[in-house]
């Protein structure tokens, strides 16, 4: 049975902890080449807008408010792509505005059930998953314990080990302090709202941060996502941007979701050539 078509207005790309909108720079051209309009957002408190964030204490609602504002730039439903820790605010955004989201795509993301923090998942896994803590043992804490930073060497080894070396070094140097209040948020989700949004989970098979066994435990805890695999580490959008773009776009197409831009182009082609779109 052919799925009903959804013409998404574009993609909203959400970065994970310690990162910024720059984390998607290598992926944006790949999406554009496949007919997708995509916008990457800077989450509050990530250091991109110091004057805006002065004195800000980040919460889950802070993130949802910023993402809601970002959605307003699109006319129509949007595919939301969340990397790593961005999976938590992305899930809560779907709970708040399910009608605005065509699909949630988690890229090695934290697709956690309501009320569960990632640290709780790690604590439940350390006994049988070696190195389940990922980056945590390497973090450097601020004096007051309110924020962490990732040392460059740890970022290169845990996050970026299979990325092009020059690109990996540039990315590691761009990482900024992360408020702990934004890293420990937990969701409040319902089957009626979050549960009605289609989901895709792209698991990273060689991830050293969100290890594969933990990715698969989240898939079991929050069932219903279409699962796809990519043979790389924690940052597929930098390690294998073309492969990730193909994987995501083809999976979206398989469930009847395409970009409004590519759909319009296909319709124009059919009207001018007399062929079916």
TrEMBL record:
PANTHER family: METHYLESTERASE 11, CHLOROPLASTIC-RELATED, METHYLESTERASE FAMILY MEMBER. InterPro entries: AB_hydrolase_1, AB_hydrolase_fold, MES/HNL. It comes from Paraburkholderia dioscoreae. Keywords: Acyltransferase, Hydrolase, Transferase. The keyword GTP-binding does not apply. GO terms for molecular function: acyltransferase activity; methyl indole-3-acetate esterase activity; methyl jasmonate esterase activity; methyl salicylate esterase activity. Coiled coil: none annotated. It comes from the Bacteria. Residues 12-245 form the AB hydrolase-1 domain. GO terms for biological process: jasmonic acid metabolic process; salicylic acid metabolic process. This is Putative hydrolase or acyltransferase of alpha/beta superfamily. SUPFAM superfamilies: alpha/beta-Hydrolases.
């Amino acid at each position: 049975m052919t799925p009903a078509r959804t013409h998404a207005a574009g993609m909203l790309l959400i970065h994970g902890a310690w990162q910024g909108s720059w984390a998607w720079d290598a992926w944006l051209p790949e999406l554009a080449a496949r007919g997708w309009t995509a916008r990457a957002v800077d989450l509050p408190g990530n250091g991109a807008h110091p004057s805006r964030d002065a004195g800000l204490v980040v919460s889950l609602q802070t993130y949802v408010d910023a993402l809601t504002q970002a959605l307003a730039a699109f006319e129509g439903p949007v595919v939301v792509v969340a990397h790593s820790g961005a999976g938590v605010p992305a899930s809560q955004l779907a709970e708040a505005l399910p009608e605005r989201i065509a699909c949630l795509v988690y890229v090695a993301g934290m697709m956690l059930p309501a009320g569960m923090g990632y640290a709780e998942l790690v604590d439940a896994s350390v006994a049988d998953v070696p190195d389940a803590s990922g980056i945590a043992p390497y973090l450097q804490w601020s004096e007051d314990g309110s924020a962490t930073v990732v040392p460059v060497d740890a970022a290169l080894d845990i996050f970026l080990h299979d990325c092009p070396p020059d690109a990996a070094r540039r990315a590691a140097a761009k990482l900024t302090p992360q408020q702990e209040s934004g890293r420990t948020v937990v969701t409040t989700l319902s089957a009626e709202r979050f549960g009605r949004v289609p989901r895709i989970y792209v698991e990273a098979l060689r991830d050293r941060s969100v290890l594969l066994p933990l990715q698969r435990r989240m898939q079991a805890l929050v069932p219903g996502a279409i699962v796809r695999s990519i043979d790389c580490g924690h940052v597929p959008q930098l390690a294998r941007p073309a492969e990730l773009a193909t994987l995501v776009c083809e999976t979206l197409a398989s469930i009847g979701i395409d970009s409004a831009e590519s759909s319009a182009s296909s319709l124009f082609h059919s009207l001018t050539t007399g062929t079916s779109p």
